[in-house]
């Protein structure tokens, strides 16, 4: 699978979201961080903004739900037209039911793991998901420092994914820069979220090209 880059609008100007989406035409996805003050100590945006963004851009939306009770709140994001909906393993009480519902509504289903959550207990769920998201910062805020301590888990996750046919995408999120992306790609990630490294750059298009080139070099 070719490298994919998913710029996080968490680092964009929330007053100009349609323009900010248009500023990254070379992005594969637009990463939308939904936070609720409960699962994480921050509040961002929700369904109405996702619905509005869906109409404002042709780039598929990669919704990362950092919310309590995703079993109740995740399916509407798929109904709203998100291309991918990711729920946290630490928050769901019925992952299989919720992941199946997301898929049945036409979206790709993702499962996210916090930095300290082991991947091995979720091996049997790989057949229920299209993407595994490994957080490389503690969730809640953009602009944090990449946690190298997660890299061995990325390698173990890649091995598990390959053992199950290699179909599941492996996403890393948090502190991904032109420098840290190489280590992530080397460990086996193939979908890269980048907020500050894209929207904090003077030229977001060039920043995406540079991230993609660095990751592709390492995966080759
Ligand atoms: O899920 C997230 C934080 O919880 C964000 O997607 C992530 O932090 C991206 O921002 P940056 O690239 O600036 O770290
Ligand atoms: Co995110």
Automatic annotation (TrEMBL):
The active site is at 33 (proton acceptor), 173 (proton donor). Keywords: Carbohydrate metabolism, Isomerase, Metal-binding. It comes from the Bacteria. PROSITE patterns: RIBUL_P_3_EPIMER_1, RIBUL_P_3_EPIMER_2. Substrate binds at residues 8, 64, 140-143, 173-175, 195-196. CDD domains: RPE. InterPro entries: Aldolase_TIM, Ribul_P_3_epim, Ribul_P_3_epim-like, RibuloseP-bd_barrel. Binds 1 divalent metal cation per subunit. The keyword Transmembrane helix does not apply. Pathway: Carbohydrate degradation. Its EC number is 5.1.3.1. A divalent metal cation binds at residues 31, 33, 64, 173. Its cofactor is Co(2+); Mn(2+); Zn(2+); Fe(2+). It holds the Pfam family Ribul_P_3_epim. One of its GO terms (molecular function) is D-ribulose-phosphate 3-epimerase activity. It catalyses: D-ribulose 5-phosphate = D-xylulose 5-phosphate. PANTHER family: RIBULOSE-5-PHOSPHATE-3-EPIMERASE (PTHR11749). Belongs to the ribulose-phosphate 3-epimerase family. Catalyzes the reversible epimerization of D-ribulose 5-phosphate to D-xylulose 5-phosphate. This is Ribulose-phosphate 3-epimerase. It comes from Nonomuraea marmarensis.
């Amino acid at each position: 699978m070719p490298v994919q880059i998913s710029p996080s609008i968490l680092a964009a100007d929330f007053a100009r979201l349609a323009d900010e989406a248009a500023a990254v035409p070379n992005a594969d996805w637009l990463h939308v961080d939904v936070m609720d003050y409960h699962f994480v100590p921050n509040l961002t945006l929700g369904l109405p903004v996702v619905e509005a963004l869906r109409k404002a851009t042709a780039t598929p939306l990669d919704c990362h739900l950092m919310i309590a009770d995703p079993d109740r709140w995740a399916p509407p994001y798929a109904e709203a037209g998100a291309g991918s909906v990711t729920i946290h393993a630490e928050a769901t009480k019925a992952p299989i039911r919720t992941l199946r519902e997301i898929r049945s509504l036409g979206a790709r289903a993702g499962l996210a793991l916090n930095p300290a959550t082991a991947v091995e207990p979720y091996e049997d769920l790989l057949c229920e998901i299209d993407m595994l998201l490994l957080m490389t910062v503690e969730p809640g805020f953009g602009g944090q420092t990449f946690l190298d301590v997660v890299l061995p888990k990325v390698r173990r996750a890649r091995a598990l994914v390959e053992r199950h046919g290699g179909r599941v995408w492996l996403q890393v999120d948090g502190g991904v820069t032109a420098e840290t992306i190489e280590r992530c790609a080397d460990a086996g990630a193939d979908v890269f979220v980048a907020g500050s490294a894209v929207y904090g750059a003077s030229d977001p298009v060039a920043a995406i090209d540079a991230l993609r080139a660095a990751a592709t070099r390492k995966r080759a």
